[in-house]
Amino acid sequence: MDDSKILVITGKGGAGKTTIATNLALALNRLKHEPILVDGNLHNPHVHVHFGIDDDKMPVNLHDVLTGKESIHKAIYEHESGLKLVPNKHTLKGFDLERSHHIKELKLHNNIVVVDGPSLGYELNNIMKICDDFILIVNPEKSSVHDAMKIKRLAAHNGIFPMGIILNKYFNNKNELSKEEIEKAIELPIIGKVMYDNDVQWALGKNTPLMHLNPNHHISKEIYKIASELPYSVI
Ligand SMILES: Nc1ncnc2c1ncn2[C@@H]1O[C@H](COP(=O)(O)OP(=O)(O)OP(=O)(O)O)[C@@H](O)[C@H]1O
Ligand SMILES: [Mg+2]
Questions:
Q1: Which of 43, 189, 233, 235 has the smallest set of CB atoms within 10 Å of its CB?
Q2: What residues of the chain score a pLDDT lower than 70?
Q3: Which residues, judged by CB distance below 6 Å to any ligand atom, belong to the binding site of ligand 1?
Q4: CATH number for the domain that contains residue 201
Q5: What pLDDT digit, counting tens, does each position of 43-65 carry?
């Protein structure tokens, strides 16, 4: 039986969706889940930025799939780590969100399709229609928790329930919301915690997610642990 999943990473704008999605996909690749990372953020695509892929190096991308010009299989690129990814290009013209269903064609023999998802809005409603699982990226502050609660409610209307929360950019200082306050407000468990660390920006400057640049970095290890504890098995 094929047990492929589409896992959407979502949360408030700037919460760290792309950072977590890219590093998590790299970790899943190390764990032999044969993931494909898709840039599902149509208005603010950044996956190619995190991997340092210039526009001319991705002549076919998700936008061409959503405009009906190309098959999604032609928009798959392979990073030097072996991770397969489908990048996207910022453009507001011509695409049909209903074509997002083509992402489902990437579900192949028990793999995981990791979608760097959008924040609240109609784009997210559309992506929710095709997702199997999703994870909320939450920062330890009220507005981030507020958006996570709204996303969870919206998803429930589509009959989809989040796997849990990844708490990102925490400092452990007294002004931030505690783990318990966040879990109680959103009514979901925190399945992983990733500290704030300036090396995340350093990696962005090097065009390579930290997981690939330095797998022994404590941020890489935190994300690797989350990936290894996801309820997916390698077959
Ligand atoms: N754990 C972290 N420590 C330090 N900085 C981080 C961490 N996670 C993310 N950042 C930084 O926060 C900023 C936003 O991160 P990112 O682009 O991943 O968020 P996003 O949710 O994808 O944003 P958008 O809504 O624009 O898509 C970036 O500058 C990123 O480098
Ligand atoms: Mg992003």
A1: 233
A2: 1, 92, 94, 235
A3: 13-19, 41, 44, 46, 119, 168-169, 194, 196-197, 200-201, 204
A4: 3.40.50.300
A5: 889 999 999 999 899 999 999 99
pLDDT of residue 92: 66
b vs e for 22-49, b when ≥16 Cβ sit within 10 Å of the residue's Cβ? Answer: bbbbbbbbbbebbbbbbbbbbebbbbbe
Ligand 2 center to 89 CA (angstroms): 13
What is the residue range of 35's domain? 5-229
Numbers of helices and strands, H then E, in the chain: 9, 8
Amino acid at 97: L
| Tokens read off for 71 | 């098959």
Provide the residue type at 27 as one letter. Answer: A
Ligand nearest to the CA of 16: 1
Residue 235 lies in a domain: no
234 lies in some domain: no
77-78 and 84-86 strand pairing: antiparallel
| Alpha carbon nearest to ligand 1 atom 31, residue | 201
- What DSSP line would sit under 205-233, residue for residue? HTTS-HHHH-TTSHHHHHHHHHHHHSS--
